[in-house]
Every structure is written in structure tokens, then in C-alpha cells.
Design brief:
By secondary structure, this protein is of the alpha/beta class. The chain has helices at 8-11, 23-29, 51-58, 70-80, 92-104, 120-127, 147-157, 177-186, 240-249, 257-268, 272-293, 313-321, 346-359, and strands at 37-38, 87-90, 110-115, 131-136, 161-165, 191-195, 216-221, 234-237, 305-309, 325-326, 328-329, 338-342. The protein folds into two domains: 8-47 and 272-359, Aspartate Aminotransferase, domain 1 (Alpha-Beta Complex), CATH 3.90.1150.10; 51-268, Aspartate Aminotransferase, domain 2, CATH 3.40.640.10.
Length: 360
């Protein structure tokens, strides 16, 4: 029988590698997922809004969800002063990234990725046959890019897509809306995908949504700030023609009824984010001080997560996992000697810090 192979792009693409729990790994170690304190995922550690519980009661299970997520889009349109056609809701930002790749990448198009960064940009476009052009940040500069270096790379490469994770995962560094506007205006043939999945974790950080440029698409996640990662919810904001193209490649009903109901309830609870994010900022100060006291000097980060150089990150991670503590090994970001940790509740941070004191 002849073998039926998938497309070559698929054969050459690695499986995705992320933080969060690896259920199979935990089963092998005989640890239940509920026992782990997970510092490898950058979500709000204070849990979802109390409104979520009630919203779950309202979910209609035996009816297809609204394919257009209309109520949620109306709420978002109101919040950001946008037209409905400028917003699309997705099954997490991850789905939206894939829609962008599917809608805009033609074989051999170039896509610019500023590394180290979230791995799904490269994965999604390479599956569509793009050539990935990676611009590496320098460790000596604490992984901060100058605007000029990005301009020069864009000039040289002239990519069809450029991904900017803002704030960046895993480093927590940011670019100002002025920089984003300058890049987008100087390179009108490139579609800039600005991933603001973690923007709420940077106090008072302005969004690029209000720039409203024709080659700017902003991705936002609701899974991290609202602590609803299990539900999967994100949205993209951009010019209506770009949003219309994303709609064409979207699988039907990808945003389920529970996600829509919970997303809306979370947005409506205007007290939730200020309360929990201010607790998180205090918690970060305590956590960071603990790291410095141990001589594990994290790199400057504007978010509640940060990276630190530890030598062999894989070994470091597995040592901690035995104690039911999980940190992110940054090897898949191209940083095999760094870990990434996200701030959790003060009492959880203390558990990690005291364990580190023992073993480090
Ligand atoms: C930078 C970045 N963007 C997007 C995502 C995916 O977010 P979502 O849970 O909304 O799919 C992640 C998840 O880790 C991320 O780190």
C-alpha cells in the first residue's frame, strides 16, 4: 500500500511546546495535577471572577453557540469604542494566530519573529509554508530591542507578517504604541500582528488598539488576566477587511457557549481586574525580592512573570517537579539555561522560595 504523507510543511514542524501541566509526565511521576503549584503558566493566580460561577449556570448546553459571539463582541466594541466588524472572537488567542497564518501566508512568504518569544508565531506560519526570519534579542541588552534594529530588519526582509509580542513572553519587555505606530507606518506592506495577551499585567500599559492603522492587527487573550485558561477565549481587533478574512477561515462554532457566557460575565465584573492585579503587583515585589536574596537574579520584566538564568533549566525544572512545584524550562524559547516563573499568591511564592533555598 502506498503511504499517504501529510504536506511537507507538516512533516517538518515540531509539536507545540508550552508551559502549564503535562498530564502524562505527572502520571509517570505519580503526582496528581491538583497537587502541583504551577509557576510555569502566566495566568492571574487569584482565580476567576466570582461572576463566572453564576454565568456557568446560564450556559445552554443543547443549542449551538452563537457563531458570531455577538453579545461578547458588542461588549468589547463598547469598551474599546470600535465597530462590531473590527472584532473577531476566537477559541483563545492561539486559534486567532492560526487564522492569521491561514488567511495571510502564501508559500514562501517571509514572516518576521522577534525572539525569544511565544513559539506559536513560527509554528503557525511555517505550517502554511512561510519562511521564518528570526531577529534575536541580545542577552547583554537584557533582551531589549532597539526600535532601529527592528526597522532595519523590516527594511531588509520586507516580511508579509511581523509578530510583536507586547509585552513579550518570556521576557516581559514592552514596546510603546509610538514604536508600534512608527514600525507599521514605515512598512505599509507588512501586516503587524501585535499580541497583547499579557498587557493587563503591566500597570497602565497603553494598548495599540487605539492606533487604528490599516496594517495593524491586535490580539488579546482573556484566558490569562481573567484566569479562565480552561475555557479558551481571545479576540482580535483590526481593520474590518482583515477581520472579514479571518472569519472566512475560522472553523464554525469554535467559541463555545460557556466561553461566551463566561467571557461576558468576566468583562462586566469591572471590579475584578483592578482588585486582583493590584494584589498581584504586591505579590511580585515580594517574590522578586526573594529571588534576588537567593542570588538568582531575574532579568528586568514589566510583567508578573520573569526569566532567570539557572544553568541547566531542564534539570532545574525536574528537580522542583519532584516537590510538586513547576517552573518553565525556557529551552523551547532558545534559552536552555533560563527558567521563566510567574508570580503566584504570596503563600505559594513562599513555598517555592523556601524550596529553592534548600536546593539551590
Ligand atoms: C504570548 C502569548 N500569546 C497567546 C497565547 C495563547 O493565549 P490563549 O490562551 O488566549 O490561547 C499565549 C499562551 O501562552 C502566549 O504566551
Amino acid at each position: 500500500m502506498p503511504k499517504i504523507n501529510p504536506r511537507p510543511e507538516i512533516q517538518n514542524t515540531l509539536l507545540d511546546q508550552h508551559g502549564a501541566l503535562d498530564f502524562k509526565e505527572l502520571e509517570n511521576l505519580g503526582i496528581s495535577p491538583d497537587e502541583i503549584i504551577d509557576f510555569s503558566v502566566n495566568s492571574n493566580p487569584f482565580g476567576p471572577s466570582p461572576a463566572v460561577e453564576e454565568a456557568l449556570q446560564r450556559v445552554v448546553i443543547d443549542r449551538y453557540p452563537d457563531r458570531e459571539s455577538l453579545s461578547l463582541r458588542k461588549a468589547l466594541a463598547m469598551k474599546f469604542d470600535l465597530k462590531l466588524e473590527e472584532i473577531i472572537v476566537g477559541n483563545g488567542t492561539a486559534e486567532l494566530l492560526w487564522l492569521v497564518a491561514m488567511a495571510f501566508i502564501r508559500p514562501n512568504d517571509r514572516a518576521l519573529v522577534l525572539s525569544p518569544t511565544f513559539g506559536e508565531y513560527a509554528r503557525s506560519v511555517s505550517l502554511m509554508g512561510a519562511q521564518i526570519e528570526t531577529l534575536w534579542a541580545r542577552e547583554e541588552k537584557n533582551f531589549v530591542f532597539s526600535e532601529k534594529i527592528i526597522h532595519d530588519a523590516l527594511e531588509k526582509i520586507s516580511p508579509r507578517l511581523a509578530f510583536i509580542c507586547n509585552p513579550n513572553n518570556p521576557t516581559g519587555i514592552t514596546h510603546s504604541p509610538e514604536t508600534i505606530a512608527s514600525l507599521a507606518k514605515s512598512h505599509p506592506k507588512t501586516l503587524f500582528v501585535i499580541d497583547e495577551a499579557y498587557i493587563q499585567f503591566v500597570p497602565k500599559m497603553p494598548s495599540s488598539i487605539s492606533l487604528g492603522l490599516p496594517n495593524l492587527l491586535i490580539l488579546r487573550s482573556m484566558t490569562k488576566d481573567y484566569a479562565i485558561a480552561g475555557i479558551r477565549l481571545g479576540y482580535a481587533v483590526g481593520p474590518s477587511d482583515i477581520i472579514a478574512s479571518l472569519k472566512k477561515v475560522r472553523p464554525p462554532w469554535s467559541v463555545n457557549a460557556a466561553a461566551q457566557e463566561i467571557g461576558l460575565a468576566s468583562l462586566m465584573d469591572t471590579e475584578y481586574l483592578p482588585r486582583t492585579l493590584s494584589l498581584l503587583r504586591k505579590s511580585k515585589e515580594q517574590f522578586l525580592a526573594g529571588f534576588h536574596n537567593l542570588g538568582l537574579n531575574p532579568l528586568p520584566s514589566e510583567t508578573h512573570y520573569f526569566i532567570a538564568k539557572v544553568g541547566n533549566a531542564a534539570k532545574f525544572r525536574s528537580q522542583l517537579l519532584k516537590y510538586k512545584l513547576q517552573v518553565r524550562d525556557c529551552a523551547s524559547f532558545g534559552l536552555p539555561d533560563h527558567i521563566r516563573v510567574a508570580t503566584k499568591k504570596p503563600e505559594e511564592n513562599e513555598i517555592l522560595l523556601s524550596r529553592l533555598k534548600e536546593i539551590y
